Amino acid sequence: MRQRGRTVRHELTTGLGRALLGGTRDDDFTAYVVGRRAHLFRAAYLLCGDPHRAEDVVQTALAKLYVAWPRASRADSVDAYVRRVIINSHLDEWRRPWRREAPTTDDRLDRPAPVGVTPEDSDALWAALRELGPKQRRVVVLRHYWGLSVEETAADLGVSPGTVKSQTSAALEKLRSVLLADATPRGGRR
Description:
It is a single chain. Helix content is 69%, strand content 2%. It has helices spanning 8-13, 15-21, 25-48, 51-67, 69-72, 78-95, 119-131, 134-145, 150-157, 161-183, and strands at 2-3, 6-7. Strand 1 (2-3) and strand 2 (6-7) form a beta hairpin.
């Protein structure tokens, strides 16, 4: 059916047509968000530990949920569906390279190297650090350069404290072997 160049179907997608049908997708979605937003924020905060990142995760999750709302609202448990979306959004945010950068007010970066560390020793240490895999290098830097605890390191890297301990142990053993190999004279005994 056509009415002045528009179909009846178009009338059903306008505000007047939706009001006649008794509700919209937006109304259902809005009602769900109003009722569950605080809970979603708490869940995201517990995942990432930062209220600003939690807000970003919730916003991203809600945008994804809105797109999938017709399917999600028919799911057995909308909360389970949303929980999965929040977890996936958190993981997506965590994987973004700019999320790993954090401004610092720590003046340790601006200090000169301590007296007694020669440039040669410093070069050998950096070369030994480059020998480590990326996960071991992260753990060593966070634990021994930044001075974080095992728990803080685990939280920052998103791994268990046991993983931090095993990575630290393996990394320090590798550093010992690399640094001791560099310290032994080449070409035989003296």
